[in-house]
Write a structure and sequence with these properties.
By secondary structure, this protein is mainly α. It is found in: Endoplasmic reticulum membrane.
Length: 797
């Protein structure tokens, strides 16, 4: 009888084991689907399907028998963790926003109610609906996430005083979006740029012998970065220096760049600063960027804010009124250790296959494709160079086909005179038609025309305010911004700095760059907001980086896509000096990835391995200061292994701590490893375990290495005098000698701990078995191996 009972119990346990395995398999599959959508919900239907699957899966499982209450609790915890992982992965992509993990919500959904099965089944639908509504509420946040989200408290507000300037009127420079400033070319906004080298059509005749020398030197410098001709580079440096000594400011800027990076010149920060100072005093905007970034790094916020304010003002002069700006966003060409292939594929401009398909569809009469092409050319997106004439042509064709979105852009083109003669009457006509088609951002342009009195009988501030309010009521960032200007200047309304500030905050959080500029001015001057120079500097910097000098990014990307890695490195290095974090990390990545192919020039020719490591280390360090967690991780690796700098475990730990503060799982793992071995941090196995656990909580993909690490801790705790401990500790010293093999076969360079932990997998079973045998011998029992099929069956009496 007992044997039959054992068989029944064994059969039930086997069924439950199989069911548990299916449960975990389905959870893993569902979590994998969720992780693929991490950071963006471009397909809401897919997100809803995942949520429905989670609830459906819970319902199916709830109807199955369980062997005991412990199984109920284990399943509940598994489901809660799965759902929490789903939600936390989405919230992680919205890191700028403050959030609270909705634990109670998910526990309410997952908690079983054995009292009333039918009621629970009915509640599943309502819970499912509630969960989907939560997803709907999160979708706008995902779509509007920005690097900066301003959360201003009452303490930040500065009450208006009689000292505030009330003399500003509606005719101030704040209302020149369609004014004369828009007629300035990029050459006027960024004099002395390298545009004639990369865009020969924009070249003009040189006006002096120094200018001839300067552009000849820059052309040779760019050419040598492609060919690797050191002699040509020497000629380039000599010509640039001669032009700089002759007093040509843009040559002084280029010479400051050579001294700052140490290219065929001894790296000399003092000389670099001096030449940039001379150039900036004579109006070179890129030298002003370099100086502002230098002050910013040194926490000299007043000087940095003054320079960045001037640069930001130049940058916003070409921004559009209803859209963000015709900005060239710097593209990160790498994704950690790997090339960012998908982003690069979408940045090939007219050579991109998707662009060619869109162009073919447009030529066949597809109105949507016409509008899309117009957008590409108007804003210079996806690697396409801006061409307002082509944009006008495609928008006009799209309107003829009944495409309403093109109406607003046509109105804006006519108002700005972009690629066509300026015509305010036509601008108002097209903007009015667009607003009638429920394109609410068109109200911004209409309001502006009434404020200025362009294309209308006379100025009408009341009607302008109504239009701006209509745009703001539909959550248009431009509407908030323009209302803010009205209240800040007292145009058609009573001046109210507090209301203006509130509107600017809404506009800034919606991504309006001009609002960042206004907020920066308020923080700098203390008008409306309490004076805060560090924040003012950061906001000015954000806007200034959208200036025409960001064209360097496009030229660098084009060079990289053509396989001209050396030229791309030169251009990214120039941008890195101006304070662009993306350019700093791109240049450092090229050095690490391509080595000699980067055509890195040192003081006397090509960079040695040591010079490349030092330069990459410096670039990664700058990027880490600007918040790049991957850069902070690599800085920690550099100090840990002594690459490009002296080995320093304490500074490595500091860098890992910086990366950990940005929720980097690899940094958490490395801190655990250093605590485990007492390297740069106190020897503490409890803290080591805590960091290992945090790494796995932060990134489920860390489960395998963390499990192995915990095995290593177990060996170290239970067998501290075992020879394996000494052997494991010696592995990091062996690693540098087999680094290339590790990088190609096992892992990315920098993660030597995998070697340390791999041995644990081979030894832990043996050690546990030996411990069990010792325990059995201590109580006088004989350990008898069980049959493989009888592992969980009680021994017969």
């Amino acid at each position: 009888m007992q044997g039959i009972l054992n068989e029944v119990i064994y059969a039930e346990q086997q069924k439950m084991g199989s069911l548990e395995a299916k449960v975990m398999e389905m959870l893993a599959s569902l979590q994998g689907q969720v992780e693929e959508m991490r950071g963006e919900f471009t397909d809401l239907v897919a997100a809803m399907a995942v949520a429905e699957q989670l609830v459906e899966f819970k319902r199916d499982y709830s109807s199955k028998p369980r062997k005991d209450d412990q199984d109920n609790e284990s399943f509940k915890d598994a489901l809660v963790n799965s759902k929490r992982s789903f939600c936390s992965s989405h919230f992680h992509s919205l890191s700028p926003f403050k959030h609270t993990e909705p634990k109670n919500l998910f526990r309410q959904i997952s908690a079983p109610n054995p009292r009333n099965e039918d009621m629970r089944r009915q509640n599943y639908k309502s819970h499912s609906l509630f969960f989907l509504l939560l997803l709907f509420s999160l979708l706008p946040l995902s779509a509007t996430a920005r690097p900066y989200v301003l959360i201003i408290s009452k303490d930040d507000l500065n009450p208006p005083s009689s000292t505030d300037d009330d003399s500003t009127t509606g005719d101030s420079s704040e209302w020149e979006e369609f004014g004369d400033s828009d007629n300035k070319s990029e050459d006027e906004l960024d004099p002395g740029s390298w545009r004639p080298i990369f865009e020969p059509d924009s070249a003009s005749d040189p006006k002096s012998e120094e200018e001839v020398l300067y552009y000849s030197g820059v052309r040779k410098m760019v050419s040598s970065a492609t060919s690797g001709n050191t002699r040509l580079m020497e000629e380039a440096a000599s010509e640039i220096e001669a032009a700089a000594i002759g007093g040509f400011p843009h040559a002084q800027s280029a010479l400051g760049f050579l001294y700052g990076t140490g290219q065929l010149r001894e790296r000399n920060k003092e000389k670099a600063f001096l030449y940039h100072h001379f150039a900036a005093e004579s109006g070179d905007m890129q030298s002003k960027m370099a100086l502002a970034y230098t002050y910013y790094r040194q926490d000299m916020h007043e000087k940095a804010a003054n320079l960045y304010a001037e640069l930001a003002e130049a940058a916003v002069s070409s921004f559009l009124i209803s859209k963000n700006s015709p900005v060239i966003e710097p593209l990160r060409i790498h994704n950690g250790a790997e090339e960012n292939k998908e982003a690069l594929r979408k940045s090939r401009g007219e050579e991109d296959e998707d662009f060619q398909i869109t162009e073919y569809q447009a030529q066949k009469g597809n109105a949507g494709a016409m509008y899309k092409l117009g957008i590409f050319y108007y804003f210079g997106l996806r690697g396409v160079r801006r061409d307002h004439a082509k944009a006008l042509s495609w928008f006009s064709k799209a309107v003829e086909k009944g495409e309403p979105r093109s109406m607003e852009l046509l109105g804006e083109i006519y108002a700005r005179g972009a690629g066509v003669e300026r015509n305010y009457t036509k601008a108002l006509e097209w903007l009015t038609l667009a607003s009638q088609q429920q394109h609410f951002s068109a109200y911004n342009g209409m309001g502006y025309l009434y404020v200025k009195g362009y294309g209308v009988e006379k100025k009408n501030n009341t009607r302008a305010k109504e239009y701006f309010e209509k745009a703001a009521d539909n959550e248009e960032a431009g509407g908030y911004y323009n209302l803010g200007v009205l209240y800040l200047k007292g145009i058609g309304v009573k001046k109210d700095v507090t209301i203006a500030c509130n509107n600017f905050i809404k506009a800034a959080n919606a991504g309006q760059p001009k609002a960042f500029y206004q907020m920066a001015k308020m923080f700098q001057t203390g008008v409306g907001l309490k004076k805060n120079l560090p924040l003012a500097t950061a906001l000015y910097k954000l806007v200034a980086e959208r200036g025409p000098w960001s064209s360097l990014s496009r030229w660098a990307l084009e060079s990289y896509l053509r396989g001209e890695v050396g030229k791309a490195f030169l251009l990214y290095s120039r941008m890195a000096e101006l304070g662009y974090e993306v350019a700093q990390s791109n240049a450092a990545w090229i050095l690490d990835k391509y080595g000699e192919q980067s055509m890195c020039m040192g003081e006397s020719g090509f960079c040695t391995d040591a010079e490349r490591h030092q330069r990459a280390h410096f670039l990664w360090w700058q990027a880490s200061e600007l918040g790049n967690e991957h850069a902070a991780l690599l800085i920690g690796d550099a100090y840990y292994y002594g690459r490009g700098t002296e080995r320093d475990y304490e500074r490595a730990a500091e860098a890992y701590m910086h990366a950990k503060s940005q929720s980097n799982a690899q940094a958490m793992f490395n801190l655990g490893y250093m605590h485990e071995h007492g390297q740069g941090l106190p020897f503490d196995l409890h803290l080591a375990k805590r960091y290992y656990d945090q790494a796995m909580e932060s990134d489920p993909a860390a489960k395998l290495p963390v499990t192995l690490a915990l095995m290593s801790l177990w060996i170290r705790k239970n067998y501290p005098s075992c020879f394996l401990v000494d052997w494991i500790d010696s592995l990091p010293e062996v690693y540098p000698r087999v680094g290339s093999w590790v990088e190609n076969i096992i892992m990315d360079e920098g993660n030597a701990t995998i070697l340390t932990l791999f041995v644990c997998l081979l030894t832990v079973l043996y050690l546990r078995e030996r411990q069990r045998r010792h325990a059995a011998a201590a109580v006088g029992e004989v350990a008898i191996p069980l049959h493989p099929n009888e592992n969980d069956v009680p021994a017969p009496n």
